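ugh ok fine here u go
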Amino acid sequence: MNTLYAAVLTLACALAAPAIGQTRLTVAVNSDIQRTDWPTKHDDVTQTVLHHVMEGLMTHREDMTVAPLLAEGWTVSPDGRRYTFKLRSGIRSHNGKPMTAAIVKANWHRSRDSNVSWGGKCRGVYDGSEEQYHRPVNILAVEAPDHNTVVFTLHYRNGRFLHHMANHHCLPGIIHPDSFDSAGKWMAPIGTGPFTLGRWDKGRSIELRRFADYRPRDEAASGFTGRKTPLVDVLTFVVHSNPVAAATALDAGDVDIWHNVPQGQVALMQGSRKDDLHFQQTSAFHQLVLQSRHDPLLRDVRLRQALTMAIDRDQITREVTGVLRRSNPSVVATSLPAYGARLQASLAFDPKRAIALAGEAGYQGQPIQIQASRAPYPSFFAAAESATRMLRNAGFDASVQEVSWPEQDKNYSQNKYQISSITFSTRTDPALMYPAIIGQKTDYSWYLWEDVEAEMLANRAAIESDPALRAEMLDQLHARMIEWTPTIGLFNHFIYSATAKPVNGFKTWPLGLPRFWGVSR
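structure:
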């Protein structure tokens, strides 16, 4: 059977109608997937679906530590530049063919092809060209010396290499060459995950089928690794962009799980006996970003510090989330292993001292605006309203500047704001979050913190593999950030999911992307 015919047969079988009596699970999602190949941007729905189909060498556990997936294990050379991965034996792709080191190598060679769309700046992180990242990976070579061994050689030592290999945004999943036709054109993903891709009715639904020959790992399921056993034959994601329609479908039993329930709908559902609500805090970082260069008022660090002291961040966190009791002033998420007591330090809430310090900085009642959008992230506007009220109570002439989300996003990247209430998306390691904050605006206009010493420290933290030394660097970075005050950290973002009563095994985790292996009705 030639490669093209095998690929066509695989796709045709996937699109066949499901048999009567097959067990099913139906999930409501708020948008359609972008594509079935690598994501073109950081889109949670696309990542969620594809993580059930594709698997990479590495991934993350429940506690956000790095763990092997297709790899059995790995070793690192003394200079920290060569990583040798041993693959698990007996792994087969969805077409029944074995997953080999040569296939892994071919996938990573494809990742270097600039003609292949791979969004979210992923290619630049792995080939070293994405300079906005402190110490991108820069993979020099990928070799397959034997059937079960893959060797990655880096340009320089990078303590975050394994985190990049597990990057859920980029999803460097291993797919079989039969995913392409004889001309190299993309057809459908033939991965190694617990589900295969079935029918994709664009704009309406995506159907996955249980992979009968899936071989899970032996250890207990944790995060995206471990014993990922599929318990249903058909897993269907139904697109419900209208939250009222999604809630109705859940109540009617047409949907078993609704992931990422909008905040406005949560309050309406909390009194329902029919649905179970699952709250999960993620590592996404909600903050009030301060314009430290292009605003004549906020250029003065004393005014930035004064605004920080005029805001009760714990109270904002309680008001906006309704669940969390304490704010997080640190770039390091509370769910990450690196989070510790020293990262809870912050400028104390002191309105009287705040207005006095603002006077020392020359503040004479000038307007201060917090920019925020209402949709699709109502927490942005809610946090801005709470902060504005507190600033006014302290004596500042503060107000909310309401804009659409596309406008707020554009203004943020172009420095067209005084303060912006915004969330930075989930990162699985602090060394991946700091590059979104530290840097010179002459290099990238959206940088917040133009501190060369902090940038050097973040670079060192990115390559350091010793946990104790790295923790010390993160503590130093946090102390410098309090002194410089480029942003006011509020809390790590949160999501809700709703399940119908008959659903068993559904569990949320800090990464925020749902898993549907081990879940049944």
